[in-house]
Amino acid sequence: MDVMTYLTLPFAQHALVAGFLIALICGIIGPFVIARQMAFAVHGAAELSFTGASAGLLIAGNPVAGALIGSVVVAGAMGLLGDRSRERDSAIGVVLAAGLGLGVYLLSRYQGFASAATNILFGNIFGISWIQILILVALAVAVMVVMVVIYRPLLFASVDPELAQARGVSLKLLGIIFLIVLALSVTEAAQVVGTLLVLSLAITPAAAAQRVSRGPASTTVVSIAIAMLATEGGLILALVWSSVPPTVFISALSFASYVLARLVGPGIARRRREGLERLRNLAAALTEAA
Fold first, then answer.
1. How many CA atoms within 13 Å lie on the side-chain side of 235?
2. In b/e form, how buried is each residue of 179-209, taking b as 16+ CB within 10 angstroms?
3. Per residue in 52-65, pLDDT tens?
4. What's this model's pTM, rounded to 2 decimal places?
5. What are the residue boundaries of the structural domains of the chain, listed by start?
6. In CATH terms, is domain 3-289 a member of 1.10.3470.10?
């Protein structure tokens, strides 16, 4: 069966829609994760969504709902325990250790199909239903609305937290809100790549975009583009080579984009500096002529 035939089937269409939504959200939050040095928070939220998913699977047979509830609770706990980088990392480490232990215990009590448990760790994008699509749409809209509202103060606090606090920005409240948004986004991404490889969508595209972009707006646009290329491209490649899980292709494309950005980034930065220097020289010449 060729790719075009696969694309007419509901499971492939559901996967591509879900991939689009998740790539959009991860591309938006990724630059802030990098700017705020919260890669460990992404890892912690992803691993602890495993605990919530395990609880949801055991109690109600619904790992997605459990992951969402668990991620919000954990994000609030991490935000309250530490709002500065050093405090936050310590708090995440403490909560992560306890949460993973609880998750392993809950999963050991589950007596259902093993595939339901492994999907939590590795994702099952081709098993996404329309109900899950609707949940992802609602989450995507909620995350985007919140990010639009807090964009300016969050950018200010990310670039210069001391000055932002002096200007009246509540760093603790802003940090908790962003952690909740981050946790929801990570839980979404885990539906595609699982909790173990969620960094490939929440971190890598933004890290690559930062190497080749100038300014917050362009970094966000490039981050979204890379996340979508990796996700949608990975899904299509998985349809072509059905023996390889889509997670493998998504992670590989994300990593390839980062390697490419590191290779071409210095050249782009050099040309940008040369262009600015030419503009300065032109401005100086015009000033002297006047």
1. 28
2. bbbbbbbbbbbbbbbbbbbbbbbbbbbbbbb
3. 777 877 787 777 77
4. 0.80
5. 3-289
6. yes
